[in-house]
Specification:
Helix content is 13%, strand content 36%. It is mainly beta. The protein folds into 3 domains: 37 residues; 98 residues, Tumour Suppressor Smad4, CATH 2.60.200; 113 residues, no CATH class. The strands form 4 sheets. It has a 6-stranded antiparallel sheet with strand order 1-11-10-9-6-7, with no helix packed on it. Strands 18-17-16-15-12-19 form a 6-stranded antiparallel sheet, with no helix packed on it. A 5-stranded mixed sheet has the order 3-2-4-5-8, with no helix packed on it. A hairpin with a 2-residue loop joins strand 9 and strand 10. The longest helix has 19 residues. The radius of gyration is 25 Å and the shape is elongated. The protein starts with 10 loop residues before the first helix and ends in a 40-residue tail after the last strand. This is DUF1684 domain-containing protein. InterPro entries: DUF1684. Keywords: Membrane, Transmembrane, Transmembrane helix. It comes from Dyadobacter frigoris.
Length: 297
């Protein structure tokens, strides 16, 4: 005699399970999958050599000599476990930055060993290399700085991903583009530097019957928007978030998708110089979409 108990799923319940699974599959292969793929690419870029998780230092150059290395007597102190006591110096003179390396330092530029080289200005960004360290010159306003990266940075090593709000299409809105030819807006960064940047226009959209407006900046074939909202400092980064849109279609509309709102570099590292949302881009709205806060920067 067979004492095994056989469990049967009623036919009606079987149909419901199949239909439920089918609807789940359909939803996951449409818009949700688009956002999931976007998030995957976002993490890949963030972890790449060009990303921000490997930032290890930001050093503002002063006119004249700026020595660098792991020894505390240097102007710029590089990580002690990644650098010898002295690697050389940077010379800043009238907007030109020259590297003078110690002969034994073995610093490379484009895979060529260098001992003296003008690294700014240049037709293309010159990235200098010493073992796992990478550095190059950035200019902010009238100031020059050395941005240091470490491919073995703890920020990169211990990165566990970014928490995000649930994906929902209600935060993908249609916005009307209103051009503002020749208009400039004031943008301040986290270091307190103020710059005037040209804004091609304003994005106007509605959420639950209420109108909102965001000043846009132009970046290549896209609009770049710095915005803040009521989730900042609690669920999301206190310095606001970024989002890109397409350029206007033939009818003057863009797709503004807050599910693609993401943290600025300053949310991940203290060595970034992020722009902050202008006052007019602080939305009186709780945007529960896109990336949530990360870390404590």
């Amino acid at each position: 005699m067979n004492n095994k108990v056989k469990f049967r799923i009623p036919k009606v319940l079987s149909i419901l399970i199949i239909v439920s699974g089918l609807f789940s599959f359909i939803s996951d292969t449409g818009y949700e999958n688009e956002i999931k793929e976007w998030r995957k690419q976002r993490i890949k870029e963030l972890k790449s050599e060009q990303g921000y998780l490997n930032l290890a230092g930001l050093f503002w150059l002063e006119e004249g000599r700026n020595t660098f290395g792991s020894d505390g007597i240097n102007k710029f102190i590089f990580p002690s476990d990644r650098s010898p006591a002295n690697l050389g110096e940077f010379i800043l003179e009238n907007g030109e930055v020259t590297l003078i390396a110690k002969p034994e330092a073995e610093i490379y530029a484009n895979n060529q060993l260098v001992t003296k080289l003008i690294i700014f200005p240049s037709d293309e960004e010159i990235v200098l290399k010493y073992k796992t360290l990478r550095w190059f010159v950035i200019k902010r306003g009238e100031k020059y700085a050395i941005r240091l990266k470490d491919l073995d940075s703890p920020y990169l090593k211990y990165f566990k991903g970014i928490e995000s709000f649930p994906i929902t299409e209600q935060w993908k809105v249609k916005a009307k583009f209103e051009p503002t030819v020749g208009r400039k807006i004031s943008i301040m960064d986290v270091t307190g530097r103020l710059s005037e940047q040209e804004s091609p226009g304003v994005l106007v959209f509605n959420i639950k019957g209420k109108e909102y407006r965001l000043d846009a900046l132009s970046e290549g074939e896209s609009f770049f928007i710095l915005f803040g909202d009521k989730t900042n400092k609690n669920e999301t980064y206190g310095g606001g978030r970024f989002v890109y849109t397409n350029k206007p279609d033939a009818d003057g509309y863009v797709s503004l998708d807050f599910n693609k709102a993401y943290n600025p570099p300053c949310a991940f590292t203290p060595y970034a110089t992020c722009p902050l949302p202008p006052k007019q881009n602080m939305l009186a709205l709780t945007v529960t979409a896109g990336e949530k806060n990360y870390g404590h920067h």
